[in-house]
Fold these 2 entries.
Entry 1:
Amino acid sequence: MPVDPYILLLLGTVGLAALFPASGTAADVASGASTAAIAFLFFLYGARLSTREALDGLKHWRLHGTVLICTFVAFPLLGLAARGLEPALLTHDLYLGLLFLTLVPSTIQSSIAFTSIARGNVPAAICAGSFSSLAGIVVTPLLAALLLGGSGGFSADALVRIVLQLLVPFLAGQLLRPWIGAFITRHRKVLGYVDRGSILLVVYTAFSEGMVQGIWSQVSAVRLAELLLVEALLLAAMLLLTWYGSKALRFGREDRIAIQFAGSKKSLASGLPMAGVLFGAHASLAVLPLMLFHQMQLMVCAVIARRRARDPEAGGRTGPDERAGTGGTTGPGGTAGPPGGAARATETLRSTGARVSSAPSTAR
């Protein structure tokens, strides 16, 4: 699978920060612009989130609870277990970045796209990803305060910054959704560029601060290779846990697919702004593990999704959107997804910006 173009843009932004880091007055301007961009980004998240689909998804609470446990319990436990790899394989800063990536919420768009490709429960993936992103606005900072403590520049003030920069704009977006929701839907493509541009600005600001402080002298090519190895093991562990754990819990095949893709992935779009708020000047090394893990999960999950689609168990079945037209998706285990028909599932996929038939967007 080729590298996603947006990952290339992210890497190009890192290179730009390495060659031309913002310092002095320029750094203050970049920091202020980054803060405003983060707030606007979460305002848009709040304005886009449809409460109708979220309420429908509550009917499938076992599946969503399983995804949340994988995302905010199993992942962090593995992150804590990786502490034993410091300093043999990971420096302290890289370990903090690895631990942070285990705390961020799941993706939305790529989880939906891969679930659809693999003929899984698409409405359940929509709701699971939305619930995870919503919960992450509160849960991720709390877990960071608990597990990271005073490390990596994190402080109690970060919780206040989270409320002001992330939660307040998000709630404002939700409150204004009845008036601006239609406008945002009509212009979702243009606003998608705003999303990505905001994240690129956050990355540039974080890595500029790292360059000014000489933080890159702590990372070598060998350390990066070791980090990739650790992240590959982390991803493999979560893929196995979500697939076989959901089988032990007696979920049907379609639900297991949704659980695997929503429960084993981490959101770059949510994680980067949060890292900028939580870590400040230390954000550059904090986001590096997340950037690498994100591209790795896309490549691996694309292969898995195609293999699931060719699985003999999926033979002769209609796609998830067509099954939704019967009143809800039902797996072999008898667990039902949210009702609403093909039109609702398709509308929701479009509202999230997911590209079902092609590679998913990296921005989620």
Note: The CA atoms of residues 253 and 312 lie 12 Å apart.
Entry 2:
Amino acid sequence: MIGTRIGAALAAAWLLAAAPAGAVEEDPAWAQVRLGTQGPAQVIGTYSNGCIAGAVQLPPEGPGYQIIRLSRNRNWGHPTLVATLEDLGRRAQAAGLPPLLIADMGQPRGGPITDHAAHENGLDADIWLRLDLPLLAREQRETLKPDYITGAWTDYIPRGALSPQQAQLIRLAATEPRVERIFIHPAIKRELCAMSWNDRSWLNRVRPWTGHNEHIHIRIGCPSGSPECREQDPAPPGDGCGSDLMSWFPMLAPVPRKGGKPYVPPPLPAACTAVLQAP
């Protein structure tokens, strides 16, 4: 699933009681660092409990994409992630899509980040499903609002709410060779499953997860040269349109929090201390 900070049993209960995106508390020490470290890129730990040395920035705009909310300084990632997003932008442009709105990737050195349960080791990126804007000035991108396809806890999508262009974007992202996962709201995944596709193999990479009701969450695998990167479990075989998808829908209604101690993530890998403290 999304990370290794929580076990499978805890994940189900935590998903129901927490914010839809599964956000954890940001560590200010990581958020305040404005630049990455020098040297080659090294991914450390997991997507939800890790960091990155040698991260690079995705340029604010390029062929087929534009970054939103640049002031957040979250357009950092492994060079392979940056190349993947640039390639996806070019493919989207060639397919006639408007510029993609790329939101949060990661912080300059990764680490805990608000609004997310992952995005910690330079291998994740969010792309809004909004596809109605031309290339905008950078200041105009600071206050954009997303288009919500469905509510965070909703299992129903009105007819036509997921446009053919949005479905095409998800397919283009899922067929990027370096992409291992795309997380999307279960109801949107169900809509994709109901559509007619000549090749359905890419649907295996599209996995259901609540909170992803106005964006897709792209994830690449551990790159070569990062021995301390921890891989996620492989996705189950098949297109993911059967019982594993349908099992999400009884879980979509939120339940009241019943008290108890808040979830506290385990310590980051020891190597992340050196990453944070590096000049």
Note: The radius of gyration is 18 Å.
